[in-house]
Amino acid sequence: QKEVEQNSGPLSVPEGAIASLNCTYSDRVSQSFFWYRQYSGKSPELIMSIYSNGDKEDGRFTAQLNKASQYVSLLIRDSQPSDSATYLCAVNKKDTGRRALTFGSGTRLQVQP
Amino acid sequence: DTAVSQTPKYLVTQMGNDKSIKCEQNLGHDTMYWYKQDSKKFLKIMFSYNNKELIINETVPNRFSPKSPDKAHLNLHINSLELGDSAVYFCASSPGTSGARGTDTQYFGPGTRLTVL
Predict the structure, then answer these.
(1) Quick one: which H or E segment has residue A30?
(2) In A, what residues contact B, Cβ < 8 A?
(3) Residues B16-50: tens digit of each pLDDT
(4) How many helical (H) and strand (E) elements, i.e. helices and strands, does chain A have?
(5) Exposed / middle / buried, residue B44 (Cβ in 10 Å: 0-12, 13-18, 19+)
(6) Are B101 and A32 an interchain contact pair (Cβ–Cβ within 8 Å)?
(7) Do B104 and A43 touch (CB under 8 A)?
(8) Given CB atoms, is B42 within the 8 Å cutoff of chain A?
(9) Sheet arrangement for strand A61-66
(10) Which of A39, A42, A34 is nearest to A61 (CA)?
(11) What is the pLDDT of residues B6-23, one digit of tens each?
């Protein structure tokens, strides 16, 4: 079982719709959760971080965390063609000394004009 | 203002050569990382340094040797390059490793695309 799992997609949504991206993780000691966006040929760009159960909103983006289900999601409202990218879920554990992120393989989002 | 920078952006070289990639961050962060992104876009940690001290060394061939002259710089030297080393290498930094919220948020450099022929 992969530590962080994402559906590779592509997830195709029409412009203006809500895009829903999902991620599950295997290690219950995970403490920090991140969503990054990566355009083709570019570096990962931080969208949001979330640490507590529930929802966290930032503009058109909402991250949702459910630690009991080991599940984190990202909702993008009013999707735009410029949102077309690969979205990477990343998880950090709080064990001794380790602060590197474990990434999922990413979900490719296509927003159709 | 470039936060995390890497040089070179592209590196094309022959098998067996030795090459280095440099990374610098001007964010005042204590922790720096090297990640490798393969052709399937999977991003995997290689090394992590906190205040010039190595804290993570994943299962990476010992042909790869990181070096941190100060906490703002982390370089990666690769000996005897192999075809399988072709990938994009990303440097990243985070404020620290204390575990407090936000200290582990990582910011990535633009990447170095390494092609071994």
Answers:
(1) strand A30-38
(2) 31-32, 34, 36, 38, 42-46, 49, 51, 86, 88, 92, 94, 97-103, 105-106
(3) 999 999 999 999 999 999 999 998 888 999 999 98
(4) 0, 11
(5) middle
(6) yes
(7) no
(8) yes
(9) A4-5, A19-25, A71-76, A61-66, A54-58
(10) A34
(11) 999 999 999 999 999 999
